[in-house]
Structure formats: C-alpha cells, structure tokens
Specification:
Blueprint: H1 3-12, H2 16-40, H3 48-68, H4 73-86, H5 90-107, H6 117-142, H7 154-180
C-alpha cells in the first residue's frame, strides 16, 4: 500500500473528536505562529522567523502526536495547516505539507512503537528542522530570495540543527502541556459544592 493510501485511511477512520482537535490545533498554529512570525521578522538573521517559531511548532505537533497516536499525524495536521496558509502564500503551504510528510517519514526510521511518546517527541522536533530546510529551499529556488548567498552549506546545516534542538525543547515542554490537557467532559477542577 502506498503512503498516500495509508494516510487517507487514517483520516477516514478518525473519530469526529480527533478531527475537531486537529482543527483547533491548526487554529492555534495559525494564530500563535502569526505572532511569532512578526516577532521573528525583527531578527536580522536569515531564517530567524523559523528559529523563533521552532519551539512553538514542535510543541503543538507533539501535542497532536501524543493525542492522536497515529504514524501520520504530522502529515495530516500539515495538510490542513498548509491548506490554510496556502490562502496567503501557496509556496509556504507546500513547504508546510512537505515538512509534515518528511517529519513522519523521518519518524519511521526510529526503532520501536510508531505510537510511542519518544517517537512523538523526536518527530515533533524534526518538524521545525524540515520546515527550516524546506522554507530556505523555497526561498532560494522558487521565490528568488537568496538568503545565505554564497555562504555555502554551513549556515543551512547550523540553522537546521538549531531548529531541531529548539524543536526538541518545544516538544519536551509539550509533555508538560499535554499532561495538563483534559479530554472533553473530564474536568478535574470541578469541585462538589458543600
């Protein structure tokens, strides 16, 4: 079975609450990502916007991976996220989709369960690293905005490693955030009245 067929089957078999959860995550990605994008624009370094967004992207993607426990979570979320962003810029929409797919494919290289927390952390950390690489490639070759000029591969490698490490930090924070999220209808803070 091809990867596209496998992903389509995962989407078809999702419960309504998981589809709603993905929609909420995409809304959070768009709104929070916009704020961080504006902050990152102030940095005078190429790729600074993505480095500022790296922990946030990984945190949200970890929450998606930990909740959905699907081997194609990043791709599914990225399809929706990329579709929304494509309204503004089709190039970034395609880059988002590619980052999700490459993150999931990278996660398949990790031994062990496809649905483990360890895998969710590593795959979530791959997401901003792939996003960094793809965004720079799109910027350099499709839009003509050459970011590193003749600097060679050094800045690209450094930026990718930095995006991955920042993403790893965001995914680790995501463990704490995910632990605080409650499934719908289970509010542990409700106290009985005396």
């Amino acid at each position: 079975m091809h990867h596209a067929e496998t992903i389509a089957l995962h989407v078809i078999n999702m419960r309504a609450e998981n589809i709603t959860f993905i929609g909420l995550l995409v809304a959070v990605l768009v709104s929070g990502g916009y704020v961080l994008y504006m902050i990152g624009r102030a940095l005078p370094i190429p790729g600074g916007k993505l480095l500022v967004m790296a922990p946030y992207l990984a945190l949200i993607m970890f929450i998606a991976g930990a909740r959905l426990r699907s081997p194609w979570t990043m791709t599914i979320v990225s399809v929706i996220f990329g579709a929304v962003i494509s309204i503004f810029t089709p190039f970034m929409g395609a880059a988002i989709l590619a980052a999700g797919l490459l993150s999931d494919l990278s996660g398949r290289l990790i031994p062990g369960s496809a649905c483990s927390v360890r895998r969710a952390i590593v795959v979530a950390a791959f997401y901003p690293a792939w996003a960094f690489v793809i965004a720079l490639l799109v910027s350099n070759y499709l839009t003509g905005n050459v970011l590193f000029g003749g600097a060679g591969a050094g800045p690209l490698i450094l930026g990718t490693v930095l995006a991955h490490l920042l993403g790893l930090g965001g995914a680790i924070v995501g463990i704490r955030v995910q632990a605080r999220l409650q499934p719908a209808g289970k509010n542990s803070t409700t106290r009985s009245r005396r």
